[in-house]
């Protein structure tokens, strides 16, 4: 999409002087989804070049580079920095990407189990998906036909929406990738390959925010180990789709564990704090 590049260049050049803008995550502090409501204020978003262009250019379509797709769980796990079982705990936060050209969504999760990475069970882990939308008007008067909406989406189908329980394959963005997603992204497919989800039920409903107890996490893990709820792969870019189709979450967890065992990774199922 060609958003007035002169305006975008000006946005990037002056961003360091704007308290409402975040171009990259502070390496000393892990950002979480709700942090972006403070760093990107509603007024800043509404006055951004992206929102100002929403009426004329309401969407930005992304393409997947086939060379970034992984063909199996082993390669996906090898290239991931974090492989975790999580409870998607908060609503996603929509924000403007560091370049100002895209809408991305940040998602906070509670870690239930980890096969690889630095996060402990019970931690909040945040990742971003290069899809999302923003309503760029505050009142009906801004647009007689309704609020102008700006959407970022993938042409051939993207992540969709992760559900209550997810197995995530994540890695840090590198180099130019940080222009779209500053930190954790799904490992493959330009940030859309590497999430497997299932609807959650009791007792995983008890795994809530920062006050989550080790007892409720253990009960949720025990429940999932025997759950026959089917896995939902949120993108046709995920590997081994024929094998995953209609597989129960308990069977899929065993599949992930077997992959981790083959690579010598040690799982963590209880709080490491």
Kindly describe this structure.
The chain is of the alpha+beta class and 273 residues long. The chain has one domain (7-63, 70-263). The protein has helices spanning 5-14, 35-39, 42-46, 49-52, 73-78, 214-225, 241-244, 249-263; strands at 59-62, 82-88, 93-96, 103-116, 124-129, 132-135, 149-154, 165-172, 184-186, 195-198, 232-233. Strands 2, 3, 4, 5, 8, 9, 10 and 11 form an eight-stranded antiparallel sheet that branches. A hairpin with a 6-residue loop joins strand 3 (93-96) and strand 4 (103-116).
Please give a handful of descriptors for the protein shown:
11 strands, 8 helices, about 270 residues, single chain, 3-stranded mixed β-sheet, 8-stranded antiparallel β-sheet, alpha+beta, disordered N terminus, about 25% strand
